Amino acid sequence: MAERGALSLLSLLCLTFLYTETTAAKHVDKASAVQPFSPFWFTVEPQDTLAIRGNSAFLNCSAHSDAATPAHIEWKKDGTFMSLVSDERRKILPDGTLFFSHVVHSKHNKPDEGTYQCVATIENLGSISSRTARLSVAGMPRFANQPLPATARLGDSQVMACEVNSDLVAFIRWEKDRQPLELSTRLIQLPSGALVISNASETDAGTYRCLVENVGSSKLSDEAELQTVPETGEERKLEFLVQPVSVTKTTDASVLLPCVATGYPAPRISWMFGDKLLEESDGRVEVLGGGSLQISNLTEADAGIYTCVADNSNTTIEAQAQLAVQVSPQFVKRPANIYAHESMDIIFECDVSGSPAPTVKWVKNGDAVIPSDYFKIIEDHNLQILGLVKSDEGFYQCLAENDAGNIQSSAQLIILDPVVALPSFPPPSLTPNTTDHVTPGSRGVGSPAGPTSSAPRDVVASLVSTRFIKLTWRQPAEPHGDELTYSIFYSQEGTSRERVVNTSRPGEMQVTIQNLMPDTKYRFRVVAHNSNGQGESSAALKVATQAEVQVPGPAPNLQGVSNTPTSVSLSWDKPLTGNGEILSYKLYYTDKSVGKEQDIDVDGQSYSMAGLKKNTEYSFRVVANNRHGPGVSTEDVVVRTLSDVPSAPPQNLTIEVHNSKSIMLRWQPPPLSGQNGKITGYKIRYRKGSRRSESETTEGTQLYKLMDGLEHGTEYSFRVSAMTVNGTGPATEWMTAETFESDLDESRVPDQPSSLHVRPLVNSIVVSWTPPENQDIMVRGYAIGYGIGSPHAQTIKVDYKQRYFTIENLDPSSHYVITLKAFNNVGEGIPVYESAVTRAQSDPDVDLYDLLHAPYTPVPDPLPMMPPVGVQASVLSHDTIKVTWADNSLPKSQKVTDNRYYTVRWKTNIPANTKVKMVNTTNLSYTVPDLKPNTLYEFSVMVTKGRRVSTWSMTAQGTTFETTPSSAPKDVTVVSKENKPRTIIVNWQPPSEANGKITGYIIYYSTDVNAVVHDWVIEPVVGNRLTHQIQELTLDTTYYFKIQARNSKGMGPMSEPVQFRTPKTESSDKMANDQASNLTPKMGPSGNQPPRDPVPPRIKDGENHILVIVIIISVGAFTIIVVVVGAFLCTRRTTSHQKKKRAASKSSNGSHKYKGNSKDLKPPDLWIHHERLELKPMDKSPDPNPVMTETPIPRTSQDITPADSGLESNPHLQQRRNSYRESVRNTPSSEPAPPATASSQASCPSEILADPEGSYHGSTTTEEEPSYSSNLPPLRSAHPHAHAHPLKSFAVPAIPASSHPSYESPALPSTPLLTQTGPPTHPHVVKTASIGTLGRTRTPMVVTVPNAPDVPETSKMLEDVDSVLASLPPCPSPAPRSNPVPLPQSYEPDELTEEMAHLEGLMKDLNAITTAP
């Protein structure tokens, strides 16, 4: 019978295993299918269209998709879907095109004009939207200007006006004698519609008219007759018939800048781009008839100021226009398709370029995405979605738009089921947190070989702040694996959208959740991942973040007005949320050209600040102060002081003689520091000889002036001064130039250059020459041709003033032929030839100075000067950089023997501080002082010799070294924590002059502001945190706080002391409220464990009966096994209980000693012996990874290091420890010690189990050094703070009742993670966690969590406690207060005070060891 039952049980187990394998295989098949992305895009998108009223119109749109059902096309007009069901005039064609049978448009009814957008939708998939297109309707032709009768002189130009609506210019054409007029380079039509006739001839005479056609019906202008007359030869004033106007175009378009001038002699028209002469090139830039400039295929580089210069032998006139070139948006990076799971965070990336900068918006399934807490626009263009839910699935589009156009690009988001693995190579748009989450997710689906992990245990919030929460937990009871990773899911209470954060490495059991909202409740749960996939979730933990501190809000309505060039008046209102009386205000101001912030205290709500720089931007902000400290700062208000007359003249004035009647002046603006405002123009004074001067003015942006109408062969003097709206500044020195005696001839090409010399080097040839002997022929420049064996391989053109040139990048030991030709506007002259062989690689280089000063090379000094080369920046210190350079125009000795000097300029790379500083020197190096530490600077150099100035050299960069902070942390605030009067929060801001990366802070506090620094208590803060909590302070006590910043170079100065007084009383019901709010965990069905949420697999109906049979038989077999095992355990329990009673009896007789095996020995720790007040080794908790501990010496949460190594290596501490031992041993006892009895060995059960606060003190453990649990219960006084010193970092331990204390008591086992806080039948425990800093005990934060699942261990411990209580004698009645129980050893008050002083000194030394860097 037994064999048959065993066989049946084995069969059932096999059947269960086979069914499980089959079900798992089905799930694997289901999980392996990943939904592919659906191709879905527009093949045709609508374009901007100009429609004719009454005619038909089309807006094209077509979409492509691989879906079974075609895309459904709809249209939006001005952002609203169009209803076209009953519209007979508008309809959607089968391909998606929007068709207008006839366009309706009138003055008061414009139903068709607007912005249109095509929307394509596929059912159950999503929607996408096209780019927008503008439908414009042409209006009725109206002539603003019509042709007028005119007369044109032969060879001159004339303009016939014709101006209509701007949208109809494209429909204008001209007729002559009522016949169509063919346009040419001589006859052109301007953008306004006007006709330009240049180089008029007799055939141009006739009757002209313009007409507008192709707009339903043609409309004709008035006819005007043009007559031609011969030129009389009399001088006529030079004037513009048409001037260029500013225009805006897009890239790749064409532009025509009109410019037509008339006069006699006939003018010659040229164009300048900026201050350079514009030349025609490759048909892209052409000057058409009459002088109009046409540019095709526009690029961004074409944008700028164009000047039309009309010149004849008598005078010169100019007209300017600005060309703006816009660039339509272009995608630099398009959004990519993304696979994701629910609760993940993702980012759709979208990067666009264009000019002006495009604006970007996001659309989901055709609807605009509105930014919220979970949909955020980051980095200007990217879309971040936090805590995905299933409804987020669909198509997302990035739409970019500027004045030049708009574009769109789409991407699909697919949210997979939890059992479906993400692809092996996640898209690059996943965030780092999400990428971390992909790895365990993809591992868990394809390997159903083993079970997943159970839920993590004891999830607690170990640290709660205003905007972050730190969670810790224990490993699951059934991990089923070694390297576990964890996912933490959290959501704001009241929302279903859940977010996820992952631990950074396997085995880590803590995480900090950042970026939370203050005073908000959140739900947290933790899930473990092993090699088989995601395990069970822990129970939800609800935690609320702390509220913000009660400091004043920002002061509203901050305004600043500049009254004079050196003063600003400021005013503001009282903060709306003052949180008490406003004591004062602090006004911060910053010179934006320097960047250094300064502050001043103000009592009222207004202030007038004087002594400021002229025409300089300053930023101001105000911070209100109340009794809690500085409040929230206002936004910066930028005020520019008023302008004034310039205090410096223009720079680098140069004079160039053009011909016998004109001289060109060029200059640079005054230095920024001397402009004192916007330069509105320049005043030019000139005089002939010693006569009285005359003046002319220019625009503020024009940095040149052609002075014409001068006398030939005459010397003129010039000076230039800058002007602002306030007046004219100082002028430059007088500079003189003499006009030519006669104009140079440009009717023929120049003669041959009079000489050509070459000097070969290794990789270059220096070419020098002299101009043609005939100086009466105009020379515009020189053309240099060169090549190996032939001079036609390369050609370089240089300016007519240049007399030498270096041909570089040549091959060594090669024969080059060189040709030189002078040229002008007529053509190139006769060339002169030379040949040279470059030197071999081994030959030394020849110095350029020797070449230029060779006796057979009569080359004048070059113009302009060559810039310095080899500029280097060598960092010497934190505020000094040495700049060195070389000058190739000096001899090899590099000694300055003439009157040249060098100008060194430098600036920082800080965008807000772009002020350039300069200094002059005659040496080839300069040491720049007074720089800012840890700042990148750029340096460049130029050389000046007389009136000749070089260009700036190549830049060199250098970053100054770091140094200690030169300013203290600012805005130090000390506030009391709400409902915790013994806890304060210290807040501050980084120092203004950090001089490097801040690595930490040190907080000093004391009750005596005049105490030496060594006597202040210190609190180190690691990293760049700007807030810190200090707990367990004394009530009704004044404290002073100072903060010191630290970087890699050392400590900075301390801040000014900030005073704070703790409240007088502590809320009497605080502890009761804390316990009442935290001792109500959710109960599970069993009463001691929260319910889990298993997710049963879906089973088909046909398989239900098999599962029922399997479950019934399995439960029966399991019941039999439990009964047998239970009987065995009961028998063993009885035997064990008897042994424990004997052990307890033996212990009560005073003869027990704890003996452990060698394997039970644990690493020693240090604790303070309660009898001798000395350091003793202490056993540690058997738990390999404790979370909550009981530590006699509370440890710091920052910079934790073991104390014993520092103690042994410090003779001073060793000496102090020995003195403690001797003083305690030599202290006389007032009474003899009574014999050890059972009553003296154990306390009353009520004393053992009662805990006035319902919790125990501990410190949060860290990964660097776990804290170990003491096996002795903590001893507390009834009033732990009644007589404590405000700065005591520990409490005086109670003296033990026995002279032979044991480190472990077998009668009371240690429970490091589950501490009894009440009667043994209580089903829940309260866990506390606090942050200890520098040895101070902190008030624990009570968090209620359910019991750990290891119930048998807890039950066994409760039974052991029962056995101990049963063996104890009854408690005696309390002794009267006048007859206390004698202690084995007593101390006098003075002796106890002395011992406490010694002990406090020892603790300070221990703190110094543990916090040493």
Give an overview in words.
This protein is mostly beta strands. It is 12% helix and 36% strand. It contains twelve helices and 89 strands. Strands 11, 13, 14, 17, 18 and 19 form a six-stranded mixed sheet that branches. A hairpin with a 4-residue loop joins strand 39 and strand 40.
Topology:
Elements (H helix, E strand, L loop, with lengths): L1 H30 L8 E5 L4 E4 L4 E3 L2 E4 L6 E6 L2 E2 L8 E3 L5 E3 L13 E9 L3 E13 L11 E4 L4 E3 L11 E5 L2 E2 L6 E3 L5 E3 L8 E7 L6 E2 L3 E6 L6 E7 L4 E4 L4 E3 L2 E5 L3 E6 L2 E2 L7 E3 L5 E3 L8 E8 L4 E18 L4 E3 L5 E3 L2 E5 L3 E6 L2 E2 L6 E4 L3 E4 L8 E9 L2 E11 L16 H12 L13 E8 L4 E6 L10 E8 L6 E4 L7 E4 L7 E10 L2 E5 L3 E4 L14 E6 L2 E5 L12 E8 L5 E6 L3 E4 L7 E10 L2 E2 L6 E4 L10 E7 L5 E6 L3 H4 L5 E8 L5 E6 L4 E4 L7 E10 L2 E5 L3 E4 L14 E8 L4 E8 L8 E8 L5 E6 L4 E4 L7 E9 L8 E6 L10 H5 L16 E7 L5 E6 L14 E8 L8 E5 L3 E4 L7 E10 L2 E2 ...
Parallel strand pairs: 2-10, 11-19, 21-29, 30-38
Antiparallel strand pairs: 1-4, 3-8, 5-6, 5-9, 7-8, 9-10, 12-16, 13-14, 13-17, 15-16, 17-18, 17-19, 20-23, 22-27, 24-25, 24-28, 26-27, 28-29, 29-32, 31-36, 33-34, 33-37, 35-36, 37-38, 39-40, 40-43, 41-42, 41-44, 44-45, 44-46, 47-48, 48-51, 49-50, 49-52, 52-53, 52-54, 55-56, 56-59, 57-58, 57-60, ...
